[in-house]
Design brief:
Blueprint: H1 2-27, H2 32-45, H3 73-93, H4 95-132, H5 139-183, H6 187-229, H7 233-244, H8 248-330, H9 332-349
Helix pairs in contact: 1-8, 1-9, 2-4, 2-8, 4-5, 5-6, 6-7, 6-9, 8-9
């Protein structure tokens, strides 16, 4: 009973202190410039963005017999066959170059993803500093201060991300064996095969849950410890382990309270997203659809793709980034609060890790 009371006391104190810190950072003396700056840092270091790609094609149809238009399979059949044969020959002659191009594009994509992940890791520490520091940090100087820790955090995320991937790859062979048992048609083989598949699916689910747990512990404890001690990943985990000694009940209550608060924040976020979709996104998409249909009716789908495809893609990317940033501006007090909550809690577990 005393341990439970102590756990509740520490967690409640952390919630109270986190809200006081949020008010001090954003609400006591509202500064629009600071608010926008912190939202930018939070978007890069905490928020996540996802893009969508739209791939569609419209079949051509009769268009009054203009030269080069598709007017039916009978008329264009021989020419289409010659084009296909020419394309096949070109593909055979250029296969090596195409493979090299595919490998090059893949390497470029991996490099872009790694650079983006590295920037996110560095800005993760910049956001912690923005919440914990007594004064507003300079992004350039903070980036230089946390560049090494950001790289260490990125490597740690790669390591924990490889664990479920390796388990899934290792599970493919038994899954194929289980599928073979099922296809044998024997009752015992079917039972063993189905049981093996269920067990391996359970293993994959466990691996994913393990990854989610490690990511949560990293965000809530490792990152604050690395910032407080100005250390790397290994020393950060050592600091976390020392802080956890005899405090398992506190950690459990911390996450129970965070889950409850997160549900409330999720409702607010859902309302904000729905409202923004109705007021901003849907009208913009409707206008874009109308413009696209008008262009399609006047110049055809090929010219429409060439004239509007790239600008539409750029607009979609920029619009998505702007939309994510505006949401972060709106929800910034919640983002700051949850960061202050973890900073306050770990500081109460171990005074050596206190940051404000």
């Amino acid at each position: 009973m005393p341990a439970t009371i102590m756990s509740r006391s520490i967690v409640i104190e952390s919630v109270t202190e986190a809200w006081a810190r949020t008010r001090a950072v954003l609400l006591t003396r509202p500064d629009p410039g600071r608010w926008l700056k912190y939202a930018f840092i939070a978007m890069l270091g905490v928020g996540t963005m996802s893009g969508s790609s739209f791939n569609f094609s419209l079949p051509g149809g009769p268009s009054g017999g203009e030269s080069g238009d598709w007017t039916g399979p009978g008329e264009m059949g021989p020419e289409a066959l010659r084009m296909m044969a020419s394309a096949a020959r070109w593909l055979g002659e250029s296969l090596g170059a195409l493979v090299a191009l595919a490998v090059g594009l893949t390497l470029i994509w991996i490099a872009v993803v790694l650079v983006a992940a590295y920037l996110k890791s560095v800005f993760r520490f910049i956001f912690v500093e923005a919440v914990a520091a007594p004064t507003e940090p300079s992004i350039r100087r903070a980036f230089l201060r946390h560049s090494g820790r950001g790289l260490a955090l990125l490597l740690w995320y790669i390591v924990i991300g490889m664990v479920p991937l390796i388990l899934i790859l290792l599970a493919l062979i038994p899954i194929l064996a289980s599928a073979g048992l099922i296809s044998s048609g024997r009752p015992l083989g079917t039972v063993l095969g189905a049981g093996g598949i269920l067990a391996l699916v359970g293993l994959i689910v466990f691996a994913v849950l393990l990854l989610i747990m490690f990511r949560a512990l990293t965000e809530d404890f490792l990152v604050p410890a690395m910032y407080a001690k100005r250390s790397g990943v290994i020393e950060g985990w050592r600091s976390v382990a020392r802080a956890w000694q005899g405090e398992l009940a506190n950690v459990v209550v911390f996450y129970i309270v965070k889950l409850g608060l997160g549900l409330g924040v999720g409702i607010v976020m859902a309302f904000a997203v729905i409202l923004s979709l109705v007021l901003l996104v849907l009208p913009a998409l409707s206008l874009a659809l109308i413009v696209g249909l008008i262009a399609l009716a006047n110049v055809g789908w090929q010219a429409s793709v060439l004239a509007f495809g790239l600008p539409a893609l750029i607009t979609l990317i920029l619009g998505g980034a702007t939309y994510g940033y505006l949401l972060q501006v709106l929800l910034l007090p919640m983002t700051v609060f949850f960061q202050a909550y973890s900073l306050s809690f770990i500081g109460k577990l171990d005074p050596a890790l206190r940051t404000f």
